[in-house]
Amino acid sequence: MRWATLLILFGVLSWSASSRADQRRFSLEYHGSPACQQGTKLLTEIERRTASAQRVNGGPVDVTVRVTIEAMGDKQLAAVDIDGPDGRSHRDIAAPECAQLVHALALILAIAIDPDALPPDVELSASEPSPPSPPAPRRVLERAAAPPPLRWAVGLSAGQLGGVSPKPAFAQALSFELSRGPGAGFAAHLSLSGVHAHGNVDALAGVADFDLLALRLASCPYRIGTRISVAACGSFDFGRLQGRGSRTRVERTGSARWYGPGVFGAVTLSALPWLRVQLELGALTPLARDRFYFGPSETVHRIPALAGYGCLKLLVGG
Question: How many domains does one find in the chain?
Answer without folding.
Answer: 2
